[in-house]
Amino acid sequence: MLNGVQHKALANQITPVSKQRVGDRIGKLSKSDMQLVEQAIKLQLDLL
Predict the structure, then answer these.
(1) What is the pTM of this model?
(2) What is the pLDDT along the chain (48 residues), one digit of tens a residue?
(3) Is the Cα dihedral 11, 14, 20, 22 positive or negative?
(4) For the chain, which residues make up each domain, given as ranges?
(5) Are the CB atoms for 48 and 16 separated by under 8 Å?
(6) DSSP 19
(7) CA angle 35, 19, 47 (to 5 degrees)
(8) pLDDT at residue number 31
(9) pLDDT at 26
């Protein structure tokens, strides 16, 4: 949740970007949410 609004991480839409295009941090995930995102990314990249 960010500013009271629920958001989604779309692991199936991974796109590389340069560091210069990444803006300021707007929030952070809980440890458990980050683990779920990492697992979804590994699944998409066939690393599991």
Answers:
(1) 0.72
(2) 777 888 888 999 999 999 999 999 888 888 998 999 999 999 999 997
(3) negative
(4) 1-12+27-48
(5) no
(6) G
(7) 35
(8) 93
(9) 84
Helices (H), the chain: 31-44
* Direct distance between the N- and C-terminal alpha carbons of the chain, in angstroms, rounded to an integer: 27
Query: Residues in the chain, how many?
Result: 48
Cα separation, 11 vs 42, in Å, equals: 9
- Report how far residue 23's alpha carbon sits from residue 17's, in angstroms, rounded to the nearest whole number: 11
Nearest to 10 by CA among 47, 31, 30, 43: 43
| Cβ atoms of 1 and 7 closer than 8 Å | yes
